[in-house]
Amino acid sequence: MGTINPVWRVDNSLKLLFLLNIMDISLTKYLTGLGARELNPIINYLLSINFLWAFLFKVTAIGAFMCMVIALRGRVKGIRPMVMGMNIFFVLLVLYQLMGVLVLS
Questions:
Q1: Maximum CA pair distance of the chain?
Q2: Euclidean distance between CA atoms 72 and 7, whole angstroms
Q3: Per the count of CB atoms within 10 A, which of 13, 46, 49, 72 is most buried?
Q4: How confident is the model over 41-86, as pLDDT tens digits?
């Protein structure tokens, strides 16, 4: 077996970003079930159709972003800080949602 080209290896910051996005959409589903309102108009629309559409959109969007980051890593400066910034944003978002769970439960 050959080795994986390091350019195409998914590092931990991208794995964390994917996990945080899954947590975000899962908590969104739970919170909207408790009566909370989704503020993202795209996700709100997709949730009004079916949760599966919102989930697939979220997974597809983050998957496309991860592919772009992996492809551009090493060629474009600022990719790592951008991913770290997104991770910080989603950590704060998930914490906010968890506070919502405490309040609404």
A1: 52
A2: 9
A3: 46
A4: 999 999 999 999 999 999 999 999 999 998 888 888 888 889 999 9
Encoded amino acid at 10, one letter? V
Q: What is the DSSP secondary structure assignment for residue 37, as one 8-state letter?
A: -
CA-to-CA distance for 21 and 62, rounded, in angstroms?
7
The 10 Å CB-count burial string (b at 16+, else e) for 6-31 is eeeeeeeebebbbebbebbbebbeeb
Which tokens belong to 102? 């405490």
N- to C-terminal Cα separation, the chain = 51
Instruction: State both tokens at 55.
Output: 């989930």
31 pLDDT above the threshold of 60: yes
Two tokens, residue 59: 């997974």
Cα–Cα–Cα angle for 56, 60, 35, nearest 5°? 40
Main-chain dihedrals φ then ψ at residue 48, nearest 5 degrees: -70, -25
